[in-house]
Amino acid sequence: MRVFSFVLVLLFAVAAFAGPASNDPVPRRIWITDVTIVSPENLAHLDRGSVLIENERIVRVERKAKAKPPADATVVSGGGGFLIPGLIDSHVHLASVPGVAPELNANPDAAHAAMLADYYKQLPRSYLYFGYTTLIDLAVVKREVLDDFRRAPLHPDLYDCGPSLPVANGYPMSFAPPALRFELFPNFLYDPAQAASIPAEYKLQDHTPAAVVAADKRTGAICVKTYFEHGFGKQRNLPVITPAMAAAVRNAATQNGLVMMMHANSFEAQQFAVDADVDVIAHGMWNWGALDRQPELPPEIKTLLDRMVQKRTGYQATIQVMGGLRAYFDPQYLKMPAIPQVVPAALLAWFNLPEGKWFGKEIDEDNTPDADMRQGFDRGPIRRVRQVVGYLAARNANFLFGTDTPSAPTYGNLPGLNGYLEMQQLHDAGSSLEQIFRATTINNAREFKLDSQVGTIEPGKIANLILLRKSPLESVEAYDSIVSVWVHGRPMSRDSLIANFSK
Questions:
Q1: Residue 423 near residue 436, CB atoms below 8 Å
Q2: Is 426 in a helix, a strand, or coil?
Q3: Sign of the C-alpha dihedral computed for residues 374, 377, 379 and 385 taken in this order
Q4: Per-residue pLDDT tens digits for 388-426
Q5: Quick one: which of 160, 97, 94, 86 has its CA closest to 129?
Q6: Vertex 51: Cα angle to 159 and 464 (nearest 5)
Q7: Burial of residue 413, with CB atoms counted within 10 A of its CB: 0-12 exposed, 13-18 middle, 19 or more buried
Q8: Which sign, positive or negative, has the C-alpha torsion 26, 31, 37, 39?
């Protein structure tokens, strides 16, 4: 039996996982001891104990303080910390770069290419830095980005929904030039009403709900994503999915064993989603339509939310989508100490230049004072979505943790950090610490049919684990007290994941 002190283990992790040595072998059997095991299936009894890892999986969980380790195991002391399952973010978009226009991301000039390359290199490490060991990308637009992510020496487990299913010329296809939108969104739903504006090479039979869902299944997707969005800004009155289309997608998703998700952020859209019997609503309700100015939650919305609770519809609140837009009008945002930990230095420097603040000008075309913009967000969409979340939390709705990182080309949605900010938003809105913990672990795992692999600390599960100094059932800040992260049984210190650590 070899005994490592906790400090030595972290030094070992740094050496083993920073740079080319990341493929070095780890001990065959690792015994993590002197920890409080916090696992969502057993929150009634938080016990001091130990966990045995072998061949990337948990093989034994001892819920007693002085259990004896196997003779051939390497012993790792948790130093009295809290061991939790790795976190799951079930709504990310890895091919998008926060704060960077899609056109620049797709075709960077020489001045920006290195900056973007550094971002993509750091991307998986930034998610790990905040404890996210499993991600789900909801709309694959550049498969090579996901492939590169999976090839990185350090990376979370990654699943995806395949190319998403917009209605032809609807959201989000409408934001791409007509000559490119069908190339960028090849798995669109054919709407005969749009036939005149669909290129002739795309045939109806290849774009029925059954055909596009089957196409996603062939890519290895675990879910499909649809949209109900009339649009905003200059892109308004867009075609939307019809009840018949949604019913056909629902049927095809069920037949293919895929989770059906719907982008829906308004009262109208979420009514449609519930009527369509979707599994997951992929946004909070920050748009109440004609009810927007009502200060309290209207009865009509309460009735809809009660239906969600009864049907156990998965709900991703994504409050930080609005917080990410608000960030452009908060002079303190880019001064957050956590930002240099997850963003390479060159990109962070660019954010602070006038060029890097371009998206803020698009949000506020009228040069409204920053304080007024912040107030507009706080009293408008952020208030509304928090009221919805508070109502659902009081009724123990089926919350799923997803951040929509990045929801737009805003530097207010940074990988990993955005999840921590979303947790704060959820707690401020009325979600309990236990609800947040379950949403990021077992709820996500069950909804996306990953619970045989991740989401709890039990024998047979993949050894994706986080060691914290504080309990996540006592404060949100505990999620920023990470000591080490384990992915498939391979440990790494949090410090080794900092942006530019290896430079």
A1: yes
A2: helix
A3: negative
A4: 999 999 999 999 999 999 999 999 999 999 999 999 999
A5: 86
A6: 15
A7: buried
A8: positive
Are the CB atoms for 349 and 416 separated by under 8 Å?
no
As to burial, measured by CB atoms within 10 angstroms (0-12 exposed, 13-18 middle, 19+ buried), residue 205 is exposed
Amino acid in the structure at residue 135: L
Q: What domains can be seen in the chain, in order of their start residue?
A: 2-86+456-497 (2.30.40.10), 88-161+258-447 (3.20.20.140)
The whole-angstrom separation of Cα 270 and Cα 369 is: 33
**Phi, psi at 265, each rounded to 5°:** -120, 10
Inform me whether the pLDDT recorded for 232 exceeds 80: no
Structure tokens at 142: 């550049």
pTM flag (> 0.90)? yes
Residue 8 pLDDT class (50, 70, 90 cuts): very low
Reduce the DSSP state of residue 143 to 3 states and report it: helix
Query: Distance between CA atoms of 266 and 105, rounded to whole angstroms?
Result: 29
Instruction: Give the Å distances, CA to CA, from 370 to 11, 95, 325, 326, 361.
Output: 45, 30, 12, 9, 11
Please check whether residue 331 is in contact with residue 102, taking contact to mean a CB–CB distance below 8 angstroms. no
Tell whether the model's pLDDT for residue 6 goes beyond 90.
Answer: no
